[in-house]
Amino acid sequence: MPARHRFASGEAGGEGVGVKSPPPKQSHKLALISLKEIASSSLGKLGTPRNDGAFHNLGKIMKRAIFILSLILIMVFLSGCKQGVEQRVDDLTGASTVRTGQEAEKDLAIAQCKELFQREKADGRDISKGPCLSNEIIPDWVCDIAHNPRQEVDDKSENQCSAFREGKAHHFVELDQNGEVVKTY
Hints:
Blueprint: E1 5-6, E2 15-16, H1 24-43, H2 58-93, H3 95-122, E3 132-138, E4 141-145, H4 162-165, E5 171-175, E6 181-184
Parallel strand pairs: 4-5
Antiparallel strand pairs: 1-2, 3-4, 5-6
């Protein structure tokens, strides 16, 4: 006659033929072994511990890490070189200073033209035909009034700045009837 044992599932009062439950001390060992198996399978080829404490495939991991780090450093170095070359060219030619100077000059011409527009309007000057307000708002810049959209009256020579027409000035600020910038050149 077969021996009666408790089921491993621990069902209350469940008796019959089945798997024996290990003694309490052995169940802890079994759990520890299971955890080691799970940990080693989750690490896979990345680095499973050996008996001597070393890791398998650690060399491959280190080589990959060094390779990726090297690529990052090379990209940082090359981006710095590009900026360095651009800075050296700018130092030699002054190109950015020229661009900055031109933008500042344009901004100054616009500000001066708007200020002149406000004074002329406050003094009661008729700006309906789009007159030239100044043949030299700042050196090489004129200030002109035009309609937006442009009308035939704007193309009449008496309403255009003579300094620009004659080539004495090379840049202009064109404002509309409300003092807003229409065009700069």
